[in-house]
Amino acid sequence: MKPPVGFSSRRRLFPRLLLRRLTSSPPPPSAATAEFAELCRRHELPAAMAAMESLHRRGLRGDPVAYSELIKCCLKNNAAEDGRRVHRHLAGGGGSLLSMFLCNVLLNMYAKLGLAEEARKLFDQMPERNVVSWTTMISTCGEEEALNLLVQMIRDGVRPNMYTYSSVLRSCSDLQTLRGIHCPVVKAGLESDVFVRSSLIDSYAKCGDLPSGRSVFDEMSTQDLVVWNSLIGAFAQAGGTSESVAVFVEMRRAGFRSSEAALTSLLRACAGTAMLEMGRQVHAQAVKSDADLILHNALLDMYCKCGELAEAAAAFWRMCRRDVISWSTMIAGLAQNGRSMAALELFEAMKKAGPPPNHITLVGVLFACSHAGLVEEGQKLFWSMEQLFGIKPEREHHGCMVDLLGRAGKLEEALRFIMKMDCEPDTIIWKSLLGACRVHRDVGMATQVAKQILLLDPDDEGAYILLSNVYAGCNQWGDAEEVRRAMRDRRVKKEPGCSWIEVGKEAHLFVAGDKSHPQAEAIGKELDRLICRIADAGYLPDTIFVLHDLEREQKEEVLRYHSEKLAIVFGLMNSIEGKPIRVMKNLRICGDCHNFAKIVSKAENRRIIIRDPVRFHHFVDGECSCGDYW
DNA sequence: TTAGGGTTAG
Question: Per its record, what are the GO molecular function terms (predicted)?
Fold first, then answer.
């Protein structure tokens, strides 16, 4: 007899199962295995685990599909210990239950849970391996190991398929290797697979070869939304905002919908290059996706990275759901924009009403302390974070502490702190101390610290530059020149300083002293006029920031054409009165440009926002949000 | 049973 409409077998089984669980007499073997299978199928983890134990106690065994569902359920619930228990049960009794199929499922669980060692151990123990086993193993590995496994699998007579190549390609971090793998992919006729294609695009972008990524895309005959998004994401990651927008427009024209992933990538690109107007336009496209958390986190980040804190805060409080990334983004955004106290207040609110902080949240909070000179608060947090939040200080947190002490002029204390650290100091931590030596003009310690960095990395450009800055700042021109010579001898090049500004949704780039911009002549003239105007307001070029031993007049000339000055003048010339001037820099702002921007903000009655790689400077009415503490 | 696109710091 057929059940009545709407009365599915699933609905019928449930009360029977419940009844059985409530009664003490065990079900007959066939019913017990069926019950186990059903619990596994329904992913009821604790009940299925109990059913498995009970079955095995009675010497009974379940169906392979049931075990496979149970292992998948362990993975879904992140229940590694339960997964291991299933593994032990399957391996017990001579291991007869551990078929290649179930080994592969277990392998996948270990791999996805990040338990690489356990995955490897199981893989090594497998008497037989098929393409799924090899591919699963490859997907857990970095480039070198993935390539080794690929060679071994071919030697073992197992032919890689599109899944295998997709994983191998994704592991490539070196362009030559990537090209080497691309060849057999083409030979095997697998390039047209959309998964392989998106892996190729992502990996070419990651290896810095965007044109190759683009040509893989252009050769695509069947179109696929994810592949479009891969290309948008690839340009976004490389900082190519206008290119990623162009691909987005192209994609829409080709009839594809604008997905959340694509909009998120665009926002990331806008954030990376501080393209606020473009970001606002993407925001307008994103309004329909109210519930998408990742997209809204990216939106928040975009406003923070464009220095628009009021809009960031509005976006933050408007979100219908906020996760640890939303809170961390907002806290770091406030801190980087010189609003340390507000960052700390938000952290207090998070502790009361938000999700538990993670290690990145605490980096943001420590950053807030170090950039506001809140030494005691920072130290208190650092020493209590493990106890309060269960987060063991990592290298990044130690780096923040060195920064905190160094910025506050406690150089000896910072050095002692480094010496006592549990982890080995890396060049980033030493450079933080070297930066503090420069600010506080401690030539002796700077020399020692720079030596330490160059021992770790003899080609570290930053160490040479910072040390030569320290010498130049103390008028030790001979020493500064010697550092420069050492740099030349080792062929270490200084990255040229550049700034850019968005005008009419386009980025205009300026390199120090560069006259290639179409308006270069007019900008130069306007800069001269501006410098004359602000000279009356007290601007005097501070030549200490010129690193070469030049005559004063020459130094002034070098300073005059620092890229941020050119960008500010261009912004003044090309934007509506009253609109803030927003400049982005690849290097940290020099003291003279900082002073220049302060005076211009007052003299021209303009808000100027400069973002360097570490933080923001908001110049309003002759003052900077950093309080001259950077 | 194996592979794809999106968010935070340094």
Answer: RNA binding; zinc ion binding
Summarize pLDDT for A138-176 with one digit per residue, the tens.
999 999 999 999 999 999 999 999 999 999 999 999 999
Amino acid (1-letter code) at residue A610: I
In what order do the strands lie in the sheet containing A608-611? A506-511, A498-503, A581-585, A608-611, A616-620, A623-624
CA–C1' gap, A262 and B1, in angstroms:
31
pLDDT single digits (tens) A365-413? 999 999 989 999 999 999 999 999 999 999 999 999 999 999 999 999 9
Q: Which nucleotide in the DNA or RNA is closest to residue A112, CA to C1'?
A: B2
> Are residues A348 and A332 part of one domain?
yes
Instruction: Identify, with chain letter, the residue nearest to nucleotide B2 (CA–C1').
Output: A132
Q: Using a 7 Å cut-off to protein CB atoms, list the covered nucleotides of chain B.
A: 1-10
- Is residue A411 within 8 A of residue A440, CB to CB? The reply is yes
The total of structural domains in chain A comes to 4
Instruction: Provide the mean pLDDT of chain A.
Output: 90
Domain shared by A478 and A507, yes or no: no
The nucleotide minimizing the C1' distance to residue A105's CA is B1
What distance in Å separates the CA atoms of residue A268 and residue A302, rounded to the nearest whole number? Answer: 7
User: Structural domain of residue A345, as residue ranges?
Assistant: 323-390
Considering the domain architecture, whether residues A67 and A122 belong to the same structural domain is answered as yes
Same domain, A382 and A429: no
Q: Is A75 exposed, middle or buried (0-12, 13-18, 19+ CB in 10 A)?
A: buried
CATH at A416: 1.25.40.10
Nucleotide nearest to A134 (CA to C1'): B2
* Domain final position from A468, A494, A520: A494
